[in-house]
Amino acid sequence: MGVLTFTLLGLLIGSFANVVIHRLPRGASVVWPRSACPSCGHTLSAWELIPVVSHLVLRGRCRHCGAAISWRYPFVELVTALGFGVVASVWPPTVAPVVSVALAGWWTLLVIITFIDLQHHEIPDVLTLPGTAVMLLAAWAWGDPKSLPSIRDALVGALAGAGLLVFVNRLGALALRRFRDTEERLWPIGFDAVNLAALVGAIGGFTSGVASIAASVAVNLVSRRSIRLPEPVLWAAWLAALMAAPIGVGVLNAVTGSVLAAGMAALVGAAAWWIVDLRTGGEASEGQEPAPGSDEPVAMGFGDVKLAALLGVVLGWERLLVAVFLAVLLGAVVGVAARLRGGGRILPFGPFLAVAGAVTLLVGDAILRAYLTALGVG
Ligand SMILES: [Zn+2]
Question: Which of 37, 158, 298, 358 to pair with 313, CA 20 to 30 A apart?
Answer without folding.
Answer: 298
